[in-house]
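User: Study the fold:
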Amino acid sequence: MEFKEIIAAGCREWGIELAAGAEERMERFFVLLTEANRRFNLTAITEPEEAARRHMLDCLFLLRCEDMTGKRIIDIGCGAGFPSLPLLCARPELDITALDSTKKRVDFVAESCDALGLRINAVCARAEEYVDAASLRGGMDIAVSRAVAALPVLCELCLPYLRVGGALLAMKSDNPQAEEEVISAAGALRVLGGELERREKYATDGTPRQVLVIRKVRECDKKYPRRYAKIISAPLK
């Protein structure tokens, strides 16, 4: 199957509705990604069919995990725009803040959205600092993150952004290492007011994947998140 057909077929299988022109926007985004990749490293996935499955469909599965309509969404560590850009290509009305600490990535995300006629708040900042600098503590409904950090670290970076009742959608592999992360994150969840609600399992290329749906069930102390060096050297237990 070709790029657009892979996306359309996968979304039909999952019962995900796409806005008009979604597949075309994703194909254009892939072209922008491959062109920029010649100047600086954004992705190791450069074949169209592989990108359709491992980038686009992988991110679109999030639309099955939580209703994003009318929600404030933050993508922590957005990198080259995953999952922000596929989500916006699929649903241009979504309200997404894409956050990354690397300027060239944030610039690429912003420029890609301009080229595609999409609206995004692309921010170059550190997640542990931006939550208070932008007065976003407890202000987001959904946090998404893909290939950023081990789960205990990710929880401390993301959960302070969420209102009580909001959800962190953490994209992970479905393997023994991921299971170890879940076990090691028990203390962080307890301290930060999170609760692993469920696991949504899927595959786009035969490799088992999962989205960990972590619900914010209570407020956490305002001393979190700590400085990044501290988060890494002394993960919450």
Q: What stands out?
A: The chain has one domain: 68-233. Residues 68-233 form a domain with the Rossmann fold fold (CATH 3.40.50.150).
